[in-house]
Design goal:
Blueprint (H helix, E strand, L loop, with lengths): L2 E7 L2 E7 L8 H16 L5 E5 L4 E3 L18 H10 L4 E5 L2 E3 L1 H8 L2 E5 L3 E3 L13 H9 L1 H10 L3 E2 L11 E3 L3 H15 L16 H16 L4 H14 L2 H16 L2 H16 L17 E4 L3 H12 L4 E4 L3 H14 L1 H6 L4 H8 L2 E4 L10 E4 L5 H14 L5 E4 L6 H5 L8 E6 L8 E5 L6 H13 L3 E5 L7 H18 L3 H11 L5 H8 L1 H14 L8 H7 L25 H13 L9 H21 L6 H11 L9 H8 L1 H13 L5 H4 L3 H9 L12
Helix pairs in contact: 1-2, 2-3, 4-5, 4-8, 5-8, 7-8, 8-9, 10-25, 11-12, 18-24, 19-24, 21-22, 24-27, 26-27, 27-29
The structure holds nicotinamide-adenine-dinucleotide.
């Protein structure tokens, strides 16, 4: 329900915004504000007006769901609401608590006076969506908090507590008690003293060395922003605030806003914002479903993953019973956990005392019995079906009914794991990424028999521990690893065709990937893939599995951990140094297959590797493994270093045009010697391309 309460208190009209969850300025609320202001303005008994929020805060700003729709321009738009407030003949006071963001701050700046609670969070986060505050924020904020502070807030988009802004002209008072009373007190004082509206636009900016400062800021910000146009545009807007009269600066802000709004980078960032929200909705399960309470958890296995998973839980205050097979493994796991906090201790982001408190939440044990009363267990033991069988059979015997039994398996069939128990409805996959305490991504794997409330509980738990969760169906590699396998294969083909690891990595890093595929492989360790290929070669003797990486492994080059892989590494350093020995290995690999190296261009590298990803993503969406194409983007952005300014592989495909992607794939598939099954466009991609549609349009994706 969108509401605005109009209440008269003496000579003051109190307008309370009531549009949960954060009073965002959708069209309806904008209309209500303008109507209420007109009513207060027309009432001769009203001498001052207070605008106050309800619930979580003053206002979260523009309603992002209206972005790009006619509603966002429909009258009254945010600009006219702000104008109406600023032009009001009676003083308007903003009373700010909780969240005050974006358009919420701009509205408060258009008010004549402002009172805030000390813990109100003030932020102009537009830059995070690739835009800038477009309703006067860049012009009014420096007039009240100074250029430097305004620049920091606008360029970073980060929230600042009102307390930290005490003493600036942003606030006329910081409320020590009840906010409404403080605002009413201020209103009564204004009336008594006959003080009328005071407009921020009329304030002068006094900064003698502003020009030099802004030039310096521009250079620094541009350097840090890389491919993102919004941060330097924010500095441009502030320059205008300093150099131009208000109206001219305001116009400049508008121009910059419109340009940014039309930029592909902003479109990508807005897509991600919506996609993250969409990811938490589960097909066929109402958002209102009751979830199971998770108060205590268990983790089985204190290795690389079990340790990181334990940290994720204790960081959120959840007690963990950590089970291992031997005292030695348990001690090693606990020591690793403690060591992983060393960086945070050094940086001061955690105190010794807090750390001990957190570690105190772990109950280490060599027994399964202490797991009896936990609400959820995550299994993170060796990747072996036989071992997982033993663990799940034991968990089924011990753990109370109604608890959730989760596996962190990367490659094993979750449905088979669920069958090891008599309660497959309570079994789910929680595929954390390494390092699990750092990586935000979590693939929540929905088995054939996983109950709705098991799934909804896992999604809610992900939020509690600060992860971004995406639902995946059961398949080899789930969403992310299934895609990265294709990407790796495409990169390997190019290696065999004539490129070198350093050329392929450089091209993809220039495209924006955080790391090229060979550097990534060296980091992850080449021996893991080697073991899988050996297993598969034994299972399918007629298929070719050999890979340059196998020869590297045979030579003891497992990647960074052994000081060499596709590159060599100096002791203690992580720089990937091209190695002539690797070039020789690749040349021998080609010779053995009668392949003559050909030139490979950077464009070909990007097309083949990225389009291979997209093609697999299309299959994953069509098979229903991912619920929507934007979920695939979220996985790839958060787990595999895809550049955010390209919005994820599926959004990137949409922006390139599916017809172009499909035609390129068909051309590669038709080339002599090509693996046609690999390269032929996935049926969904081919169909959408033919219909002139996008992945985003396919079954109500996030955007
Ligand atoms: P790891 O070898 O580092 O740790 C496994 C731990 O499990 C060892 O400490 C071992 O002592 C313990 N263990 C073995 N059997 C046990 C049992 N019956 N009871 C209790 N503890 C037992 O392995 P890891 O890399 O942490 O991987 C664990 C799981 O996570 C695997 O299923 C793996 O596929 C999956 N995974 C790994 C990664 C990764 O990047 N390493 C990423 C995602 C998922």
């Amino acid at each position: 329900m969108i509401n605005l309460d109009f209440e008269i208190s003496g000579a003051v009209a109190v307008l309370r915004l009531d549009s949960p969850p954060v009073n965002s300025f959708g069209l309806e609320l904008r209309r209500l504000i303008v109507d209420a202001l007109a009513r207060a303005e027309a009432d001769p008994a009203v001498k001052a007006i207070v605008l106050i929020g309800s619930g979580k805060g003053f206002s979260g700003g523009a309603d992002i769901r209206e972005f790009g729709t006619p509603k966002s321009f429909a009258a009254p738009n945010l600009h006219s609401v702000l104008r109406t407030i600023e032009d009001c003949s009676k003083p308007v006071i903003a009373a700010i608590h909780g969240v005050c963001m974006g358009g919420g701050v701009e509205l408060a700046l258009a008010c004549h006076y402002r009172v805030a609670t000390s813990d109100a969070q003030i932020a102009l986060p537009e830059v995070k969506l690739g835009i800038l505050p477009g309703a006067g924020g860049t012009q009014r904020l420096p007039r009240v908090v100074g250029v430097e502070r305004a620049l920091n807030m606008i360029v970073s988009g980060n929230p600042v507590r009102a307390e930290q802004l005490r003493g600036t002209a942003l606030f006329d008072a910081i409320a020590s008690g009840d906010l409404r009373s403080a605002a009413l007190d201020l209103a009564r004082t204004l009336i008594a003293e006959g003080r009328g509206p005071k407009r921020v636009r009329d304030l002068k900016i006094n900064m003698p060395d502003a020009e030099a400062y802004l030039q310096f800021a521009h250079n620094t910000v541009k350097g840090l922003a890389g491919p993102y146009p919004a941060p330097p545009a924010c500095v441009e807007a502030l320059k205008a605030a300093v150099k131009e009269p208000f109206e001219a600066g305001f116009k400049r802000e508008r121009q910059l806003f419109v340009t940014l709004m039309a930029s592909p980078e902003s479109a990508a960032l807005r897509h991600i914002f919506q996609a993250e929200r969409a990811a938490s909705h589960i097909d066929g399960i109402p958002d209102s479903i009751a979830t199971r309470p998770i108060k205590r958890v268990g983790v089985v296995g204190a290795g690389t993953m079990g340790g990181g998973i334990t940290m994720s839980f204790i960081n959120a205050g959840l007690p963990v019973t950590l089970v291992e097979t031997t005292q030695e493994a348990l001690d090693r796991g606990l020591a690793n956990i403690r060591r992983n906090y060393a960086g945070a201790l050094r940086k001061g982001s955690i105190t010794e005392e807090r750390l001990e408190q957190r570690l105190g939440l772990i109950t280490p044990t060599l027994q399964y019995e202490p797991l009896r009363d936990v609400d959820l267990v995550v299994e993170a033991v060796f990747e072996s079906m036989e071992i997982k069988r033993k663990v799940f059979e034991r968990l089924d015997e011990i753990v109370k009914q109604g608890a959730i039994l989760a596996s962190n398996t990367s490659t094993l069939n979750l449905d088979a794991i669920a069958q090891f128990t008599k309660r497959p409805q309570d079994v789910i996959g929680l595929h954390f990424f390494s390092p699990a305490n750092v990586m935000r991504l979590l693939e929540v794997v929905r088995g054939a028999k996983t109950a709705s409330d098991t799934l909804a509980t896992a999604m809610a738990l992900a939020k509690t521990i600060g992860k971004i969760a995406v639902v995946s169906g059961v398949c080899d590699g789930f969403i992310g690893n299934r895609m990265v396998a294709r990407y790796g294969m495409a990169a390997h083909d190019l290696l065999v065709a004539g490129a070198l690891p350093q050329q392929i990595d450089a091209a993809l890093q220039k495209f924006g990937m955080a790391m090229g595929p060979f550097r990534m492989a060296d980091l992850a360790g080449l021996d893991i893939g080697w073991a899988i290929r050996k297993r598969r070669a034994a299972e399918f003797p007629n298929q070719e599995f050999s890979n340059v990486a196998d020869i590297l492994c045979e030579a003891g080059r497992f990647g960074q951990k052994t000081g060499s892989g596709f590159y060599r590494y100096e002791a203690g350093a992580r720089d990937a140094i091209p190695d002539p020995a690797v070039t020789a290995i690749i040349e021998r690999f080609r010779e053995a297959r009668g392949i003559v190296a050909r030139p490979v261009s950077d464009t070909e590298i990007i097309e083949r590797c990225v389009y291979a990803l997209i093609n697999e993503g299309a299959r994953i969406v069509e098979e229903g493994i991912a619920q929507r194409s934007s979920d695939v983007d979220i996985v790839y952005l958060n787990g595999y270093g895809f550049p955010a300014y390209r919005g994820g592989p599926m959004f990137y495909a949409d922006s390139v045009g599916l017809i172009t992607v499909a035609r390129t794939l068909s051309r590669i598939a038709a080339a002599p010697g090509a693996d046609a099954a690999f390269w032929t466009p996935a049926p969904l991609l081919a169909r959408l391309a033919q219909e002139g549609k996008t992945f985003s349009e396919f079954r109500g994706s996030a955007t």
